Amino acid sequence: MTSTQATPGTSVDGKPANIETRLFINGEFVESSDKKTFGIYTPSSHELVAEVFEASVEDTNRAVAVAKNAQPSWAELSPTQRSAPLKRLAALLRQHTAELAYLEAVSMGRPVSSYADSMIAAQKFELFAEAGYTAKGVSSLNTPGFVNMTLRQPFGVVAAIIPWNVPLVTLAGKVAPALITGNTVVLKSSEKAPLTSLKLAQLSIEAGFPPGVLNILSGHGHNSGATLSSHMDVRAISFTGSTRAGGLIQTAAAQSNMKNVILEMGGKSPAVIFEDADLESAARKTAKSIQWNSGQVCMANSRIYIQDTIAERFSRLFNAAFSEIHQGNPLNPITNHGPMADDIQFETVRRYIASGKASAKLALGGDSKDGFVEPTVFTDVPEDAKIMKEEIFGPVVNISIFHTEEEALTKANDTEYGLYAAVFTKDISRAMRFAKGLEAGTVGINCTSPVTGHDLSFGGWKSSGVGREGLLDSISAFLEHKSVLIEIE
Ligand code: NAD
């Protein structure tokens, strides 16, 4: 934050002169048809930041209609032509980092000190802008008398629905590949953090997208979200959020037009630490994984399994690393532990901590006040306890002891989630046994979340996901297949 330049219309700390609160439809900002708004309040201090216009069903239908109208001419452009506004948007996101960091800090409490989302989003727009020419089919001479081929073509209108914890990163991971492949997009942001998506909409005008190609709505799941999920003109929907809402979207998709569905959902990620691991490094990395963004991260390692022989030493190192926080106002550049995103999230985490106190041993923290939750560790947690099975989405971790490799693998996999898993060991054979045996979309060896690979698939096994995101995966996910058979006369 301190190293970024202030941009015109912003003060040095990133506070914008005006906050955009309207819907972005057909290249214009408009108020909602029924003038309804909802308030965005700063977590913990409860100050009103903005009254944001809520997309009605009518607004949502209009956004889909203009996207449908804009799609054929957008798809007719070459990937080079489509990439130009994506690249300009990437540059604008970088320039406006201070303002975007401010908007996320006041909406959902993200410390500006850890704000890299605009940079990550910019990189995604650039990577996908360059990947447009990878969208192509294959040819085959395997049928005698025929030259056959497949074509890859855009779906038409793609809907994107995103959560509040890393809004711009999630937005970029859906919007950039959907657009470069010739689809047009209607995105609904989270009702808890709509302001950075609206800022991006403003920047998209400067970037030069044709009207209707990118439309951004603010609103709740039950109206604009549900309208998009069941819309007959939306042919693919990409969602990131809870497993609960993902299930509702999948049902709505199936009950409407069987639209293609990509679901990136919750996690309860394990990290397994063996006695031969670099314990200091493992403690630092696993503590950061569950502390960053106050634990509000889908892939955070919220279950840690440690070998019995190193239990005491690892716990000491882990607790020391996990306690190293500067808690406070997220706008303060030294803060690295902000409040929970809102009162609902705060109360949810408090309930889980109360449940943990009743079923397990509290080894660190456990206190929560005025929207903030201390880094909290539970030990002796029964494998079937609520805090072991359910996603808490806070800075709360269970540390358990194992005696054998088989026991560790069985416990790590004993979950309905399967987003990310990590193993720390210097034994290459054991590392590879775990890489094969762990039931998760991503496995870290001597590293843990949020480490991911740009050119690798990202997504969940089991109830953590359907489909994959990633450089080549997302290009493919937003393209239909068509087989063309040519009989040679
Ligand atoms: P959420 O499911 O409550 O909301 C996510 C989005 O879905 C919001 O925009 C919301 O308005 C919308 N929504 C809610 N109900 C809907 C419905 N019936 N129809 C259509 N849209 C609906 O999740 P959240 O609280 O915003 O985010 C936290 C969750 O997101 C956690 O479970 C976390 O693990 C998950 N997440 C997953 C990933 C991933 O990549 N797998 C990344 C970030 C967050």
From TrEMBL:
Sorted alphabetically, the keyword list is:
Oxidoreductase
Catalytic site: 264
One GO MF term: aldehyde dehydrogenase (NAD+) activity
Q: Which reaction does it catalyse?
A: an aldehyde + NAD(+) + H2O = a carboxylate + NADH + 2 H(+)
Specify the domain of life of the species encoding this protein. Answer: Eukaryota
UniProt lists the family membership as follows: Belongs to the aldehyde dehydrogenase family.
PANTHER family hit by this protein: ALDEHYDE DEHYDROGENASE-RELATED (PTHR11699)
- Protein name per its UniProtKB record: aldehyde dehydrogenase (NAD(+))
Biological classification of the source: Eukaryota, Fungi, Dikarya, Ascomycota, Pezizomycotina
